[in-house]
Each structure stands twice: as structure tokens, then as C-alpha cells.
Give the backbone structure.
Amino acid sequence: MTITTPASPFGRTVCAMVTPFTPEGELDLDGAQALADRLVGEGRCDGLVLSGTTGESPTTSDAEKSALIRAVAEAVGDRARITAGVGTASTRHTAELARAAEAAGAHGVLVVTPYYSRPPQEDIAEHFLTVADASGLPVMLYDIPGRTGTRIEPATMLRLAEHPRIAGVKDCAYDLLGSAKVIAATGLAYYSGSEELNLPLRSVGAVGYISTVANVAGGALASVLDAYDRGDTAEAARLHARVLPLVELMMASGLPGTVTAKALLSALGLSAGPVRAPLRAAAPERTEALLQAYKAL
């Protein structure tokens, strides 16, 4: 039995791509193009998220964000969907970034919940609706209360799903019940934003994943969905378990995924470069542990 994957304007196997920098800390557009090409080819990613959390959006300028979109769009052409992270704590600034992403060639925008100010649900809804009206691009809501301090409650999701351009959700809420209820009640394309939940969320109707680990192990993650979608759930569970040691080291070891992804990419001789402060590079022993887990996978 083959399990049908719901259609989505953002892709299915999506990488939250790191933003390569030169050794001096400047934006490395050649490196970004090389990495994007590898992710779409060898990494089996049919979508890329640029300037998300993993892409160090808090420390890149608006001009750098637009330049990155243009460079990656040139590199991958029509082989992958490009979603630009545009979320900020300001509704006005987020709307400006959405329009800039559209002008630069993005296919969609990822909009995180406004952070720090912790607005109530009504204000969160108005923020997303304003941004959705600011451009013609499909919008993916980014629900990550552990970073923003505020959840997009399921009732708010149901309201937002009525907007014609609000099309998806990157789910980092760790609430399988709430997510399953919204998936069942709406046409929103749900994506796991936490690799350990890629298979559980797919089993209740999610489209796919948006993954930091896909920077280095996209094929291994894609194989899990492939097995599930062809109806081989036992093989999907085996492949899911096989990738968990690397997932744990990269995403649950006390270091941000940006740091671990760049450390491992650099150790493999691939385009990444340093992280920008306040982040700092992984210690050599952490990098070696990541490399050994990668080799084992």
C-alpha cells in the first residue's frame, strides 16, 4: 500500500540550510550556491529554508538575506522550493522582509511567532494576517514556543488556516495531540521541525520535515519518509531509529544546531565557514564525536 503525501508549495524533504560565511565572517555566496546544489542533489532535498534559525537570521542583515535568496535561486533553479525566513519581533519589519523575499525570487516565506514581547493570541493572529497580506507568497507559520516564549494555540491555527495564503506550519511545539487536531481539521501543510518527530508527525498527516540535520544527512532522513510512504512502516521505524544518534548529538547536546551543523560540514570539507557571535564554534572533541556519529550512519 502506498501512502499519499499531501501537496505543498514548500516541498517535502526540506533542509533548514546554514548560511555559509568566509573565514573573515562575511557572507559566502559561492559557498551557499555550492552547498545548496549539494543539498538538492546528493542530499535529496526538494526544499530549502534560508535565513531561518539554522541560517543565523538574527545576525544577518536584510541585504544579506536578499542576496542569499538570489544566489541560491540561481544555483538550484526549479529543482527545489525556496522558503525565506522573514520573521522578526516587528510586524512592520517582517512585512518588509516578506516583500523583499518575493522580489529576490523566494517561493514562500517562513514567519516565526513574534518573540520577546509575548503578544496575546489575538495579536499573534493579526501579525500573521498582516504579513500574509504583504506579499503574494504562501506563508508557513513557525511555531517554536521554546524560543519565542509564545505558542500559536491550535484555535489560532484554525483561524489562520482560513487565509488563502497561509499554507503551512513548521511545528516545533512538541504537542502531538494539538498538531494532529489541526492537521485533521485544516488543509495546512504540516512539517516536523524536530527530527525525532519526523516519522510520528508524518503518521498523522504531516507533509514532511524541515531539518537542520539534513545539512549533512538529507538522504538518511528522506529514506524514512520514502519507506513510510510506500507502506513499509517497519522499515521506516528502523531507518528512523538509525538516524537518532546523530540527531541527538546535533540537536540535543547543549549546542545550537547551527553550531553542530557547521562543525560537521567543515569537518567534511564542505561549505559552511564560522558561526557569527554570540555563537561560538564547537570544541574539537564535540566535532570529533559528531564526525564519528556521521560515519556510523
